[in-house]
Queue: 2 jobs
Job 1
Amino acid sequence: MAQATRLKRELFSILSWRTEARAATLPPERSQRVRDRVGQLMRWARAHDSLPDLRQRAVVLCFHGVVGHRPDDDAECEHLPVGGFRQLLHVLQRSFRVIGLGELVACIREGRSPPARSAVITFDDGYANNVEVAAEELARLHMPWSEFLPAQFIETGAYQWIDEVRLLVHHGDRRELSLPHGEGVLTLDLTTATSRHEAVRTIHQWCRYVPDDVRREWLAALYAAYPAGLIEDLRGRFRSFAPMTWMQARQLKAAGVDVGSHSMTHTALGQQSLDAIRREVFGARAVLVSRLGEDSPHFSYPYGRAASLSPQTEAVLTEAGYRCALTLEQDSVRCDEVNLLRLPRLIVAPMVGRTIFGLWQRFVR
Ligand SMILES: [Zn+2]
């Protein structure tokens, strides 16, 4: 039996290594499809049962939206359909041990090993669908999880700017957009679904790290390129982008879900002045405490990549009493050497096979 497991592990290790080597030579969309297919094969073959019991290794998954059905595959492409969500949960239930973030943090702080193949489930951005769709699936499997709320969005009910960009780009009638960009002009082709996806990616890549006032001004120019009232109409039609209400957040807390802070305005903290970081961290905590009675000791960085992180931000988080802060640096957690204020996570792709493939990679590397 042990030999069969070893053989299985070796076979899938070779397959994953060869897949990665091939994916590296393909354009991004095709390489993702290749990983997705191999991930689905791994799910079908229960490959993860053969993973080694690395006691010092855990993985933290980061979900965003989960939807029952996706009426529009283009605008809603980042939401995970519930069927894929269930597939991934079954892999976790079968081959991993899902523990709460608090348990993982306690193990790391106390120098204990977490259970073999530990996985932690987290959600960023506070979409209402996390309560309406995902919560039920997780409760059925008795899986603990954490939700991270951008406080101001829950206060105001506003949609995230990138979701609004997606809605306008895919559902507005423009075939091209020309917008100011630094000293020049950025021209985006919107004639095909592929070029519209590319345009959203381009906007996301540069807009997320520019100062907030620059982004606001730039987005105002983008909104002005579309008929007045279109965005309100789209917000109404695409409720899958709506944030949860405080009532729903309290419902989660009452059900035992860990509800933490994802900052106040969802801005890249590493780019901000000390005063602004303090406003984002302490401001969000004050709102969470007043709305939910208490804040979790866990924090999640907006955007989560290098530009969102800084020693200054870590100092403010420590001062505010946070015990861990989650990034989106795509890695597993090496419990014996990790910085708790830079805990890496694996982002869950809308094509769930890709995540299943990624889970394998994170445990065998
Ligand atoms: Zn976020």
Job 2
Amino acid sequence: MQTAMDDDLMDDTDEPAFTPVKDAFRPAYALSADSAGPQCSASTDFCLFCEFANDGIVSEMKTLVHTLAADGKELPVITEALRRAYEDGVREETEWSPPGCPPVHAPEWTTASIRRHLLYSTEFSELFDVAIVQMFHSIIERQNASMIDSSTNMVVEEHRAAFTDTVKTFIKFKAHQDAIAKRRGGSKRG
Ligand SMILES: [Zn+2]
């Protein structure tokens, strides 16, 4: 006969156990070539900035990125400017030799590949910083949108706590950015 204690034990054993599964997780940034990651080295796509030395037209296109970033242009705008600059004259002159494959004339430099390099190469870290500021803006705006309980007009405490936590972290991030800009002798941004 089952007792109440037996029932409790049964309930405990009914709890789904966490079983680690192979490949359930992956690195945020792959350090070996055989694992997936967001960066150029983990992709088989053509990337102009990875393939060619930093001189001539490549150097000019990198200067274009820094200039547009300094003007506060957003990532999609800079990505599109690079894509157009590549298509307008550079692509036709480009020969690519992917490892183990025949050479490719005028390879496409896709928007995804350009964005991947801009964000993950660390050459243009200012772009990632701007993207983080935009993420904070977006999160703060959404947290604001759900701050008040419509039926009671009361502040939802859980949402307020999450909001102030976001703002605190954002202030720390901005202070860090300003300290870096000051050390470099640059101006404040954001
Ligand atoms: Zn690249």
